[in-house]
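Hi! If you just cloned this repository, the fastest way to understand the data is to look at a raw example. We've pasted two of them here, unedited. The first protein comes first, obviously.
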Amino acid sequence: MLADTAGAAGRDELLAPHHEAAFQQTRDLLARAGVPDLDARARAYVAAVDGLIFARLVDGAPEPPGTPRSRAALTAVVQTLLAGAMAG
């Protein structure tokens, strides 16, 4: 059990810079769009994208990665998430 906790802490250290950069970029984008409640919406968006990435890693992509159909599917999901983050 202790090893699991140590592993999680190590992952957190590795992911923290990614999460902070993604949060700042999303927050900046939403700010330029005039979206209110920037911090909460940016964190929710980043969490949703993280979940999407995790699901694709665990469950596999419905289409082979890098194909036009795979890119189109990801684009549609990300557009929906972004529209939700920007909705007032």
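Ok, and the second one:
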Amino acid sequence: MSSAAFTRRPLAAWDIFSGPHSVSGTVKVLTTPAARPVVLMDEESWLVVRSTQSAADGTYAFPKVCAGSWRVFALDDQGAYNMVGKDRVVTQP
């Protein structure tokens, strides 16, 4: 039986896209705020950079990202609605 040593590889996307800015918003199902999975993607490469869960009031935040334009997608983990995306979301200081 052979053994292998595993080393922890740094998350390159985290390092490349880190910065002093943030992206935030509110997820709504129709007009009602909702808790849903949310992903942040690089506008140019479509690389998923971060993911989070919105709060019960629908709010989400991705702190400590670099300045720029992003894509944000809210997923319906309950299967009742389609995924909703927003592109060209600009960071906040």
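That's it. A detail worth noticing about the second one: Helices lie at 12-17.
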